[in-house]
Design goal:
- The complex is a heterotrimer.
- Chain A has 14 helices and no strands.
- By secondary structure, chain A is mainly alpha-helical.
- By secondary structure, chain B is mainly α.
- Chain B has helices spanning 5-32, 37-41, 54-62, 65-96, 102-111, 117-135, 143-153, 155-167, 171-179, 184-195, 197-213, 216-221, 229-232, 244-277.
- Chain C has two domains: 26-158 and 320-389, D-Maltodextrin-Binding Protein, domain 2 (3-Layer(aba) Sandwich), CATH 3.40.190.10; 160-318 and 396-440, D-Maltodextrin-Binding Protein, domain 2 (3-Layer(aba) Sandwich), CATH 3.40.190.
- In chain C, 46% of the residues lie in helices and 13% in strands.
- A five-stranded mixed sheet of chain C has the order 2-1-3-10-4. A four-stranded mixed sheet of chain C has the order 6-7-5-8, with helices on both faces.
- In chain C, helix 10 runs parallel beside helix 16 (397-416) and helix 11 (266-274) packs across helix 12 (287-293).
- The chains are: A mainly alpha, B mainly alpha, C alpha/beta.
- Chains A and B meet through helix 1, helix 2, helix 4, helix 5 and helix 6 of A and helix 1, helix 4, helix 5, helix 6 and helix 7 of B.
Chain lengths: 327, 279, 441
């Protein structure tokens, strides 16, 4: 994201000199206000839908907003940092639950993003040279991304049923890998199921982005390398990866943020029967606020989540920005 | 990459593994929608015992699927059109003008992308209610409320993508239009937008898909009359039975328009993402 | 140029669509209605009691039309599925914008009472709906915290019963069980995993079902979940043993298929019973319509009360299940709403709705009509009137349900995936649940 804006700056600076040569129709008054007018709708909407509710959400985290006060929420008593203390007290049940959920979500996100990136890169490289049927394969690979999330997840739910699902049918009945029918939607396998379902959709976005990125690398660099005797693997390592670095930087960050905040996958996959092994943090917070009427604590947890995401993003941009030429 | 034998082997493996990974769920969805109820409640079979079209017919009656379809369509199309329009204006401003507060604007807009939905779900709901009480404009339990919410959700990504795309369109085009006598808006309309068509299409697709698939806010903000598909599909697990074959049929029907539309426009989507993300 | 006309067309469409959006919105969120008596409209949110939302609407509409004919008050009905009802009530309570009258699960009554958003049925209100003596006492007790004016009154009664397959029992020469121990031995004799038949089906992945049985079993041991001051007492011996006894059906006695740990609602276990894969299932009396719809005929099954262990402290066979009716405090049509409640809890209406909604009567001396099987009707009436105990009537009741229920889900999952759960494990899980409830209140 910062790549785009920082790139525009030098280009704009160079063009600034040309601006003074505008035509006679140039109306100084209007065009001074024009950019503000143009961004006004976006600003208003962001304020209304994102910023102000978030500020209210932050306020809610400092207040004891439980079922006793929800009908008259301006009368809810001030709790100061009380909700945060409860959420962060790892010795009691609520804090422990939050910590465990955080751990599960970190593991889930890292593995899902890693797998998605690997699959996306593998497919983008494999489909780079043209072959017969390439466009059909490419189209097929994009279907999981195009499918509405809940349709895909519902199908996976059906596939992961212990007795009637295709996954166990293949493992037990067709391949005879084990005679004990495993559970996929409860117990410790639940995390594996979550990762599989999330990766199924996410890798296609990585594929899409990386494929687009690969197209912008000029052919002759590869040809020159081939002439020099570099094999495919070396070409990938020395040409493809470095050229894709700007794309990858943004891609990985976006993938991580999306996956960490994923609500749809656990909600549609597990419904009300959320297994502890698959307790992702957004659902955990939803549970803590909506299902228990404990909006004060739930808001505190949301704010903590937001702070964490901001820290991760900031750190990531700092570390990668320092190495990048365009810092 | 040279097409050595090793590469061909690699490609074959990738195609088979990933191909199966993608295909099997789609296959299950398609065949299950054609199975009688007993089939989907018993052990899994690769091929239906009888091919029935009944689920495709019954699914409209078990749950008011047609109404959900209409609601989803209205909400998604409206959200897309307005989101794209507003994003175009804002992206044009960010790309073409150096105004005070520009960096603050872009940073803030981009950072809203990472807000967890649960944080502002209830406050947003309360704000909508207050607006209703003060101004009489009903937002909760209406499609309008959802439209406004969804169009805002897709704004950050759209503005970022379009700004990047506009940046790659040379200023000379703008200059030419200005010399011809258009104001900046005319330049946008006549010259920049047509050149940015792939980016606009990409953003439109993204906005539509975001709205079509959203679950959390739809579950809280809608009532039965304006429920969307994302929440409506859950109604198939009713008191007396879980109609998996109808669920699969409904999932299929709900997905087909979106998938076809996406695949038709995917070339533009890819081009848009390319220009937006890559320089 | 093509792009320009495309965009212009899109703008026109969007304008048209947003006009449709503004106009076509549902107006069920508002307590609408005019001023004087004859012109009023009540908004009523009903729960899903029949086979589908549409079915409920079809059943209720003539009943509501009669009410309108009698009183001139119109009723705007919306039927809401169980997936959504609690959230809708929550948002209505939060925003102050909701219906006038609403069905609630009666176990939510004390929690909802604590929000102060519902009309208490004090002396005057109670008289207006026909007086409190017309109700079955245990049913009325569910309406709110003990010693306070209830904020809901009973509408439909439900109770658990042990359904058994007559043919399977006869073939094995067994009598329907009268004690817990008999139930287990009967189930073990009827369990044959090789033939894919099991003694019982449990909705072991449904936290609401699990917590109900935890409650009933603990009640049979004479144990309570909250003390007189409303503080949670989950780790008492009676509670731990009660939970363990239920878990052991899958763990030690092995009469339930481990796959049951995936059943996240009662529908699935009832299905197993109706398709004759299991010999017994414990369910509320509204299982009849599902059982028959799935292939079993009405004479093929019988019902006995859910048994207690030999020498149990109390012969509790069910919690007082059912649906209550509440009025929102901020309703603009209080008198009309009271009239409506009176009508819905009248003997005639109760009899009309009893069959399609498979409910037990909440009125004293009323006869159950949900089944034509006299023995079954008598069993359930007996259970509901004499062997049932209300779930804890404290504001934290909903948290009790979700924490203990979900803990049991996890324990069943552990058992199903090959692990084991001891009494100490149960106690530890209940302690965690207790801490969660204490922290949240």
């Amino acid at each position: 994201m910062s790549v785009a804006t920082t790139e525009a700056a030098p280009a704009a600076a160079a063009k600034a000199a040309k601006k003074t040569k505008r035509g006679p129709e140039h109306r100084p008054g209007l065009s001074r206000w024009l950019p503000y007018l143009l961004v006004a709708p976006a600003v208003l909407l962001e304020l209304f839908i994102h910023i102000i509710p978030m500020v209210v959400g932050i306020w809610m985290s400092f207040v004891k907003l439980t079922k006793f006060f929800i009908a008259n929420w301006s009368a809810a008593p001030w709790a100061g940092l009380g909700n945060y203390k409860v959420a962060l007290d790892f010795n009691n049940a609520v804090g422990q639950g939050l910590l465990k959920s955080f751990g599960v979500t970190v593991a889930f996100s890292l593995i899902t993003v890693a797998l998605s990136w690997v699959f996306g890169m593998a497919a983008a490289v494999a489909l780079q040279p043209a072959f017969r049927g390439r466009s059909i394969v490419r189209t097929l690979f994009l279907v999981p991304y195009a499918l509405p999330a809940y349709a895909g997840i519902l199908t996976w739910n059906f596939m992961l049923q212990r007795d009637t699902g295709v996954v166990n049918h293949v493992i037990v009945d067709n391949l005879h890998l084990t005679s004990d029918r495993p559970f996929w939607l409860i117990g410790s396998n639940a995390l594996v199921s979550l990762i599989t379902v999330a990766t199924w959709k996410l890798w296609t976005f990585a594929f899409l982005t990386l494929m687009a990125g690969l197209q912008s690398i000029p052919r002759d660099i590869y040809e020159a390398a081939s002439v020099d005797g570099a094999g495919n693997l070396r070409q990938w390592r020395n040409i493809t990866l470095p050229s894709l670095r700007p794309v990858n930087l943004v891609l990985v960050l976006v993938l991580f943020l999306w996956t960490f905040s994923d609500f749809n996958t656990p909600y549609v996959l597990f419904g009300t029967a959320q297994p502890p092994a698959g307790d992702l943090i957004t659902f955990h917070i939803y549970n803590a606020s909506f299902l228990t009427w404990n909006f004060g604590t739930g808001s505190a947890m949301s704010v903590l989540l937001l702070i964490f995401l901001m820290i991760v993003t900031g750190a990531y941009l700092l570390v990668t920005g320092r190495k990048s030429r365009r810092a | 990459m040279r097409e050595t034998r090793g590469f061909k082997l690699y490609r074959g493996v990738v195609l088979v593994v990933l191909g199966l990974f993608v295909l099997i769920p789609l296959y299950v969805m398609a065949t299950s929608s054609l199975k009688p109820l007993k089939d989907v409640q018993g052990a899994f079979t690769w091929w239906p015992s009888n091919l029935r079209l009944a689920p495709f017919v019954d699914m409209w009656k078990t749950v008011p699927l047609a109404r959900y379809f209409v609601n989803s369509t209205i909400v998604s199309v409206a959200a897309t059109v307005f989101s794209v329009a507003i994003a175009i204006l804002a992206a044009f401003a960010v790309s073409r003008f150096r105004f005070r507060g520009r960096t603050v604007f872009t940073t803030t807009v981009l950072s809203t992308q990472m807000f967890p939905g649960v944080l502002f779900l209830l406050p947003l709901f309360l704000i909508f209610v207050n607006i209703n009480n003060s101004f009489g404009v009903q937002l909760v339990g209406t499609r309008l409320g959802l439209i406004i919410t969804y169009l805002t959700f897709s704004l950050p990504f759209s503005i970022w993508m379009l700004a990047g795309y506009f940046d790659s369109i040379p200023r000379e085009l703008d200059e030419a239009a200005l010399v011809d006598g258009c104001g900046p808006m005319g330049a946008l309309w006549r010259v920049v937008l047509p050149a940015a068509r792939p980016g606009v299409i990409a953003v439109a697709i993204y906005s539509f898909m975001t709205a079509w698939g959203e679950v959390l806010f739809a579950s809280v903000m809608t009532t039965e009359a304006n429920r969307t598909l994302s929440v409506g599909l859950r109604q198939y697990s009713t008191q007396t039975n879980i109609y998996w074959n109808q669920i699969m049929a409904a999932a299929l029907v709900v997905s087909v328009p979106v998938v076809i539309g996406f695949l038709l426009a995917q070339r533009h989507f890819v081009a848009g993402v390319t220009a937006g993300a890559v320089k | 140029m093509r792009l320009r006309s495309l965009v212009a067309a899109a703008a026109a469409i969007a304008l048209g669509i947003s006009l449709a959006a503004c106009g076509g919105s549902g107006d069920s969120g508002d307590s609408s209605g005019g001023g004087s008596g004859g012109d009023q409209t009540l908004t009523y949110w009903a729960s899903n009691q029949g086979t589908s939302l549409d079915n409920d609407k079809a059943v209720l509409t003539p009943v509501l039309q009669k009410f309108t004919a009698d009183t001139g008050i119109k009723v705007n009905l919306e039927v809401i599925g169980w997936n959504d009802l609690q959230t809708r009530i929550q948002t209505a309570t939060t925003s102050g914008q909701g219906p006038d009258v609403v069905n609630i699960g009666n176990t939510w009554a004390a929690s909802l009472q604590a929000t102060n958003a519902f009309l208490p049925f004090d002396g005057d209100a109670m008289t207006a709906i026909g007086g409190k003596d017309k109700f079955v006492p245990t049913a009325l007790a569910t309406g709110g915290k003990e010693g306070t004016d209830p904020t809901s009154v009973p509408l439909y009664g439900l109770a658990y019963g042990l359904y058994y397959n007559k043919a399977m029992f006869a073939a094995a020469g067994l009598q329907p069980p009268k004690t817990w121990e008999e139930m287990v031995t009967d189930a073990q004799k009827l369990t044959d995993p090789a033939k894919k038949t099991w003694g019982m089906a449990l909705a072991a992945g449904s936290y609401t079902e699990n917590v109900h049985f935890a409650f009933i079993n603990a009640a049979q041991n004479g144990a309570d979940w909250f003390d007189k001051d409303g503080k949670p007492t989950f780790t008492g011996d009676g509670n731990v043993q009660g939970v363990l006894r239920y878990l052991d059906l899958m763990q030690k006695d092995k009469v339930a298929n481990p796959s049951n740990a995936q059943y996240d609602n009662g529908t699935k276990s009832v299905n197993d019973f109706a398709t004759k894969e299991v010999a017994m299932v414990i369910n509320q009396n509204n299982a009849d319509s599902s059982i028959v719809a799935n292939g079993m005929k009405a004479g093929e099954y019988g019902v006995v009360p859910f048994p207690a262990p030999q020498g149990a402290a109390a012969p509790v066979a069910s919690h007082v299940a059912g649906i209550n009716l509440s009025i929102f405090k901020n309703t603009k049509h209080k008198d009309a709403a009271l009239k409506f409640v009176k009508y819905m809890t009248d003997a005639t209406t109760q009899t009309t709705l009893g069959k399609p909604f498979s409910s037990l009567p909440v009125l004293k001396d009323a006869k159950p009509v949900f089944t034509t099987d006299a023995a079954e009707a008598a069993t359930f009436a007996d259970v509901y009137n004499t062997k049932s105990k209300p779930l804890p009537l404290v504001p934290a009741e909903d948290q009790f349900e979700s924490t203990v229920g979900k803990a049991m889900n996890s324990m069943f999952a552990k058992i199903a995936t090959g692990g084991s759960v001891s009494a100490d494990d149960v106690k530890a899980a209940l302690k965690t649940a207790q801490d969660q409830v204490a922290a949240g209140s």
